[in-house]
Amino acid sequence: MKRFFIGAALLVSVLILFFFLWNGQRDAAKELAPPEEQVVTIHGETLPEQPNVLLAIDPSSQTILSHLYEGLYRFGKDGTIEPGLVETMTRTDDGTTYTFTLKDSQTSSGEAVTAETFVNHFRTLADDDTNSPFSFFLEDVVNGKAVSLGTAEPETLGVTAIDDSTLEVTLERPMEGFEEILAMPAFLPQPAIGEWTALDGNGPFHIESMDAAQVTLVKNENYHAAEDVTIERVVVRTETALATETNGMHPVPYGTDEADLESWEGKLVDIPRSGIFYLKPNVEGYPFDDVEFRRSLALAVDRDAISPKLARAERTTERLLVIDETEANTTVDGEAAETFESVKERLQQETIEIELLSFVDDEARQIAQSIKQNLEQLDELTVNIVELPLGEKVRKEVAGDYAISLSGWQPDYPSLRAYLTQFETDNVLNSSGYADDTFDRLMTEAQATESKQARDEAYRQAERHLLEQAVVIPIYQAGRTYAVDDQYEEIGFPVIGPSYVLHFSKVYKK
What we know:
Structural class: alpha+beta
Number of helices: 13
Number of strands: 19
Strand content: 15-25%
Largest sheet: 7 strands, mixed
């Protein structure tokens, strides 16, 4: 018996060794395509709209700009944040001052990118005259908030060029993880703004041509790490070609026939994104000013019934903080029908009728209909769906002219706080009418906490408080599926920021 176990163990060891050898030989057998074939073609993608990194809010612009410029930090091939132009980073003992030593970098035309370049860029980002939607990124930097409000001059912002290759940033208070925010597209060094084809960036690519049908990027030989960039050309086309073109990379549109996906010869990559869609009640209006009524709706939502209506990469969730990798108890206690009956009795209402605001969109229409069916399982509750174009819908929400809305939020930076600030009492983005001392206190305590671990735990408590009061009812996390040619390797798909990164990508021979 002992010899049997020894023999079995040896067999397993041999099989494991064979597996690793086979994998290694298979990888070694892969051969790079020649330079003229190092081309990534992306079909069915929206073209970029805004060439100014300080104003670009659409994903297409942020994605293209992230290939034209490189900042202090960048998104790596695994989607995580890593140093870009930062050679070294040190932090003072009190945690308030960061010193970044920079790598040598220049634009495609040969202009040097220095610490002074970043100082000027940070000041322009914070300046209230710029009116950047991302100026809040700098509110933790000394005088950042005052500069963005116009009560202090940009020159007082806590950023200094010690010399050409040394940048110093001073915070109002110590805060671990501050450097991760610096990877966002708003921090890409852009000394001059112009038309897309005239942009002079320091990133791995620059624009060769652009028209209404496609944009073409070519390798920037002046990029500081040009020797690490294998791709010679990137072609982004607007025309969808998933059913007809077997090569390239294709964002998979909502409603794509499963047969088209099953016939795809390459890889299907499902990418979760930072966006979250949820039901947002106007807590100032009747009957949504009643916390038990809101809870009855939260308890009635059947996410399993909604799941088939979602796109392939989207996932139902009970979390608001969808980028949080730590498990959290988010279950709302109670039973839907019983809670709803007690609400009707207390409000002395036999029937209740509510209006659900939704988008003019095929996916939103199906999800809203599913939610309506969920909620109308509550006895004598009627849900009327009102669909509006996005702009009109947003205007009604901002004005507080709604009852409950199928709404969404896609944070712009990698922090749990990004999901929560819109519910703070005095926040300009707070369109739900919510005002709560406990929630505001948790948010203040979190912001004043240096330790990222402790800060995130405070944010989880704040999330839990919102869910318990059904101020927000999470439905699903956004996601995107790409059909990717088997020849393409090492494409990065971040959860937040640009849709994809091609700095390290390669094309192999078939």
